[in-house]
Amino acid sequence: MIRINENFTKLKASYLFSDIAKRVAAFQQANPERSIIRLGIGDVTEPLPPVCVEALHAGADELSRRASFKGYGPEQGYAFLREAIAQHDFQARGCKIEPDEIFVSDGSKCDCGNIQEIFSADIRLAIPDPVYPVYVDTNVMAGRTGANVDGRYAGITYLESNAANGYVPAVPAVATDLIYLCFPNNPTGAVATKAQLAAWVDYAKRHQAIILFDAAYEAYIRNPEIPHSIYEIEGARDVAIEFRSFSKTAGFTGTRCAYIVIPKTLVAYDAQGRPTPIHALWNRRHTTKFNGVSYPVQKAAAAIYSDAGKPQIRAMTDYYLGNAKLIREAVAKLGLPCVGGDNSPYIWVNVGRDSWEFFDLLLTKAGVVCTPGAGFGKCGEGHVRISSFNSRENVIAALERIAAALK
Ligand code: MLT
């Protein structure tokens, strides 16, 4: 008899953003005349930078000619993209990352979700709360947790992020093996200083642990003191994997391109305690299960590193940060405490009441979609996340509607 993976039954019925999309669709169906502004899921609205569009066209043209046609590319990504990434995202910041330590993929959601496959089923997890739900859910699916009791899975050390610690959790008192960190943070928008990240690198070294560092939002950092990469921290090459994405950097949520950095010096241990390079394991996994990102898309991603591309993506992230500033100001005027939005596209608002109730109120009274904090974990209760990913006009309209609805 065919059996299911029972770990899936420990999960909530649907993924957070699917759940929200369903609720919004049901509301729209019942109220077809209402206009809805979406500041929920972090999905970009502004068109691709012109350099990316040109590169997509040029890439497609190459594929149209026999002489320059390409079939399967290297699973890890074309050299031109991996070299540009290593040079501009890392070496330019003093991080010793080589092109062959980069694996190009079709998204950080997939990368963050898939990476756990190469680690043992019985490792100890440290996961922030609130958190991007993919980190938790993929470990639940893999059987690394017990049941969900009162919003918490047995077997996870939750790293609580709250106003008291500035939404940057301190290292736990207990030993763990795999640590998920995300800065600038999704959902809180908090950023971590070099000293704070150095404490995590030190912790990982002491416990022979690995940090999974999600830096999908690094392009939003404006404070020059804040590190963009965990590899800006001394010794991080030996304990950390980093995830990056072109989604929020260059508007690629629909175009799809991202990458993982796995330094060749990074090891995990086998049952006999022998160090084993993680790079080789991931390469085995990646080449077996993934066939590469399409050539025109990789050309488009590489274009952001050109002299013309750099100011274009800066203008795009500035645009969303401009929205974020308006959101912060409007939320402050309403008397609600908030964080984020200055080095991040997300604003984390303390609404002082049930977060799904507040979500429903905004949806029904203002026609504005936010993300209820409880969807990101127990510590998210009482909060909502407002995304700055929308047009300026829509953000201004949404803020007016929210102010009117909360009057
Ligand atoms: C979010 O809204 O948290 C993100 O858009 C989700 C994602 O990048 O998958």
Keywords:
407 residues, alpha/beta, Aspartate Aminotransferase, domain 1, Aspartate Aminotransferase, domain 2, seven-stranded mixed beta sheet, four-stranded antiparallel beta sheet, 12 helices, 15% strand, binds D-malate
How would you describe the overall organization of this protein?
With 407 residues, this protein is an alpha/beta fold. It has 2 domains: 138 residues, Aspartate Aminotransferase, domain 1 (Alpha-Beta Complex); 251 residues, 3-Layer(aba) Sandwich (Aspartate Aminotransferase, domain 2). The chain is 36% helix and 15% strand. The strands form 5 sheets. The protein has a 7-stranded mixed beta sheet, with helices on both faces. Strands 13-14-17-16 form a 4-stranded antiparallel beta sheet. A hairpin with a 5-residue loop joins strand 11 and strand 12. Helix 2 packs antiparallel against helix 9. The longest helix is centred in the last third of the chain and has 25 residues. The chain starts with 15 loop residues before the first helix and ends with a helix. The structure holds D-malate. The site of D-malate has 6 residues, from loops.
